[in-house]
Amino acid sequence: MAAAHDALSVRHYGASPGSHAHDHFQILLGLEGVLELEVGGRGQRVGAGDGVVIAPSLRHDFESTRGARCLVLDSSDAGWTRLDRTAPLPATLPLARYLASACASGLVRARQLGPALLLEAWAPPALPRRPRRAVDWPGIQAWALKAADEQLSVADLATRAHLSPAQFTERCQQEIGLSPMAWLRGLRLDRARHLRAQGLSVAEVARRCGYRSASALTAALRKQDHPTPLHADD
After folding, report:
1. Which residues lie below 8 Å from residue 136, measured CB to CB, with a gap of 6+?
2. Considering the chain, what is the average pLDDT of its residues?
3. Phi, psi dihedrals of residue 38, rounded to the nearest 5°
4. Residue 228 pLDDT more than 50?
5. Which one of 3.30.70.1060, 2.60.120.20, 3.20.20.140, 2.60.120.10 gives the CATH number of domain 7-122?
6. Fewer CB under 10 Å: which end of the chain, C or N?
């Protein structure tokens, strides 16, 4: 339904009536002719299909040397806020012509619903964003651990997730709180601890977890302050 102070009308414009302002929004949609406007010191032309939203308290002046006819909506609907610099979509003109006809014919319901329809046609609500594809972190983790002896890159991980490297990096930071390589390194060190607990030598664990040497694995584990020190000569 229309807001309490919404009013639709068709007006004809000619000579300038002088600069003035309103305490409500005024929306003009051109039907015929060309209307020259100055709104807040900024010039604007409104021809057929063009439109302008004049914000409350904004001084404006207009004239048409050959006459112009416009559909005018005086509205207190806050939905027009921030639309003062937007142009109406092309589909708004047929609606404006219908509403102008409704005003002339006295179609009460059309005039009641017209303001809301005009606002919706002028700036339709944004479509809801499609939900992002969920990242199968358990699946990627299982795959990365099976390929623990390979030198995986961010691109390899991203391909597995069906994302670009940049997208995968962003999702990893947002959902896990780590960079991709830090996450992968953590997986491999956890795997190394597990294998070491099974009695495998550090050299064998290093080979299975993608470290170039037993000492490199030992250093990595010590860096994370592992509570059980390992020795490369085990």
Report:
1. 161
2. 85
3. -125, 115
4. no
5. 2.60.120.10
6. N
CA 3 centroid distance within chain = 28
Question: What pLDDT, in 10s, does the model give residues 52-64?
Answer: 999 998 899 999 9
User: Does 7-122 match 137-223 in CATH topology?
Assistant: no
Pick the CATH number of 137-223 from 3.30.200.20, 1.10.10.10, 1.10.10.60, 1.10.150.130: 1.10.10.60
Q: Is the pLDDT of residue 124 over 90?
A: no
Q: Is 231 exposed, middle or buried (0-12, 13-18, 19+ CB in 10 A)?
A: exposed
Query: What gap in Å lies between CA 81 and CA 77, rounded to an integer?
Result: 8
pLDDT for residue 130 is more than 80 = no
| 31 phi/psi in degrees, rounded to 5 | -110, -45
